[in-house]
Amino acid sequence: MKTTSFALFALTAVTQVLAAATGTQSDADRALACASPSTAVPLLRGYNGNWRDHFYTADRNEMNNAVSNIGYTAEGTAAYVFPGTTGSDGTTPFYRLWNPTHTDHFYTTSATEVSSAVLQNGYEYEGIAGYIYQNANCGGVPLFRLYSGSSVDHFYTTSASERDNAIRNLGYNDEGVSGYVLPV
Is 102:72 a contact under the CB 8 Å cutoff? Predict the structure, then answer.
């Protein structure tokens, strides 16, 4: 299963790179283009206290299943992301991974991190959670990434005060900005 998932990820990543490389727009034009905010969808946030795992999805049915059948508590909308991309809209994939041993969801825009997490850290590639901006040029706000080694949990928020509280009081470390999203 892990090998098949990783092979699918690699194929998807190569396809996206080739599509972007063969486009007719210049790199400068691509950098200026922005996805239409009207196409953004909620990135829903859930938390499972037994597993100490934060879960994010743009699929309401998936969140409803996680709440009804897996023990997550819905925590509302974390941000707005884009469900698809044209390769020229300033967005990048926000990859989702799962580690069944540590019951941890991990999200990243880095294909290198995906490869490392799958090949070295026991994560399984689960697909693309949505597309987020690569920088703040399109009006997005930072999506902060935090990690707790003691509970093996990745946590994402757009709130600087929530980030700071998690660092000061909950044992999380700041891992920087994952990308930029539209705020709630």
Answer: no
